[in-house]
Amino acid sequence: MGLGRFGSALAEELYAEGHEVMGIDTDEDLVQRCSEFLTFAEVCDATNIDTLTQLGVGHATHAVVAIGDSLQASILTTANLSELGVTDIWAKALTLQHGRILERVGAHNIVFPEGDAGRRVAHRISSKVAEYVELDEGFVLAELTVPYAYVGSTVQECALRETYGVSVVCHKPLGGTFEVTTGNTVLGEKDLILVAGPEDAIERFAQMSRE
């Protein structure tokens, strides 16, 4: 529900992955532009529960409320999906207060696209983190270049879990592809590594990687 930048990008990615995707928006032009990557495209008002019922939305495996231009429409649509019995509702929130309201009316997962993007950029600017993904509250996965101090060492010799509280998930040799690491994996210069751990631990390790 909602085919703006966030909603349309999400729909296109899901469609590319082979999912059946229904897109709903009140803007006919938006629906038309997105129709090439939608299994079903509907121009209608998602705040009208009768319309959603007629479309069979209650049978959806997942539903995403990506309405960003109207808090009222976002909240009403989420409430409608909950009333229809959708068991996995994702909703885009603009503020923490908006997110709390969406949870109260039935959203199971809240997404803050602008805030999440801002945090990722901040981490990339302030450290040598190439990519940053929050897997759960306070627990993140980060991609960065092997710090110079560990070049030529095995993962076991680095003892990053003991020193920083982070774990190396996999690494990508220069010019190669990502591989699962073992204790005997040797980290080379300019290799990329994916490390997982608490956010503060990742921050400490990322800062060390700048030295």
Task: Tell me what the structure shows.
The structure is a single chain. This protein has 211 residues and is an alpha/beta fold. It has two domains: 5-111, NAD(P)-binding Rossmann-like Domain (Rossmann fold); 123-208, Regulator of K+ conductance, C-terminal domain (Alpha-Beta Plaits, 2-Layer Sandwich). It has nine helices and ten strands. The protein has a five-stranded antiparallel β-sheet. Strand 3 (63-65), helix 4 (71-83) and strand 4 form a beta-alpha-beta unit. The chain is elongated and about 65 Å long. The mean pLDDT is 86.
Short summary:
The chain is α/β, with parallel strands linked by helices.
Please give the structural blueprint:
Blueprint: H1 5-16, E1 22-25, H2 28-34, E2 40-43, H3 49-54, E3 63-65, H4 71-83, E4 89-92, H5 96-104, E5 109-111, H6 113-126, E6 129-136, E7 139-145, H7 155-158, H8 160-164, E8 167-172, E9 179-180, E10 192-198, H9 199-208
How many structurally independent domains? 2
Q: Count of DSSP E strands?
A: 10
**H and E order:** HEHEHEHEHEHEEHHEEEH
CATH class of the largest domain equals Alpha Beta
The portion of residues assigned to helices is 25-40%
Specify the overall morphology: elongated
Alpha-carbon distance between the two ends:
46 Å
Q: Which residue ranges are poorly predicted, with pLDDT under 50 across at least 5 consecutive positions?
A: none
Give the quaternary arrangement of the chains: single chain
Count of DSSP H/I helices: 9
Gyration radius, to the nearest Å?
21 Å
For the largest beta-sheet, the strand count, sense and barrel status come to:
5 strands, antiparallel
- Backbone structural class: alpha/beta
CATH architecture heading of the largest domain: 3-Layer(aba) Sandwich
As a percent range, the share of strand residues is 15-25%
| CATH superfamily label of the largest domain | NAD(P)-binding Rossmann-like Domain
